[in-house]
Amino acid sequence: MIIDFNDLELNVAQNFKGGEKEYVSRRFVDENNKIMLGTLEPGASIGYHSHDADSEVIYLLEGEAAVLYDEGEEMLRAGQAHYCPMGHSHSLINRSDRAITFLAVVPTHNK
């Protein structure tokens, strides 16, 4: 199955999960996964949130971002992935002076 993000609707979320500014994305969603191509402009963030029933992998395509993860902070650079397992919390923050682009995958966990 091919997912062409160019064919998916552009979504603009203000203060996503309590974050700053806009989170712009194109999303594929089915019963098993959410797969998102996202952009955060300088100063934008995805708010700190928990993954109680799922997990998330964020692969940074362009730029550099801060990741708040549980009690710490990590720097994520293009070509690296951040993994937030089920039961953990995180946030993605663009503190740089240019946009970041990333691919995020949130699989459904069946208990």
Strand arrangement within the widest β-sheet reads 1-2-3-10-5-8
Number of helices: 0
Mean pLDDT: 97
What structural category arises from helix and sheet content? mainly beta
Apparent shape: globular
- CA radius of gyration is 13 Å
Got a strand count?
Answer: 10
Largest sheet: 6 strands, antiparallel
Beta-strand share of residues: over 45%
Residue share in helices?
under 10%
Terminus-to-terminus distance? 26 Å
Order of H and E elements: EEEEEEEEEE
Low-confidence stretches: none
Keywords:
111 residues, mainly beta, six-stranded antiparallel beta sheet, 10 strands, 0% helix, 59% strand
Secondary structure elements and pairings:
Elements (H helix, E strand, L loop, with lengths): L9 E5 L7 E8 L3 E8 L4 E7 L4 E7 L1 E6 L2 E6 L3 E4 L3 E6 L6 E8 L4
Antiparallel strand pairs: 1-2, 2-3, 3-10, 4-9, 5-8, 5-10, 6-7, 6-9
Question: How would you describe this protein?
Answer:
With 111 residues, the chain is mostly beta strands. The chain has no helices and ten strands. The strands form two sheets. It has a six-stranded antiparallel beta sheet, with no helix packed on it. The chain has a four-stranded antiparallel beta sheet with strand order 4-9-6-7, with no helix packed on it. It starts with 9 loop residues before the first strand and ends with a strand. The mean pLDDT is 97.
Task: Describe this structure in a few short sentences.
Helix content is 0%, strand content 59%.
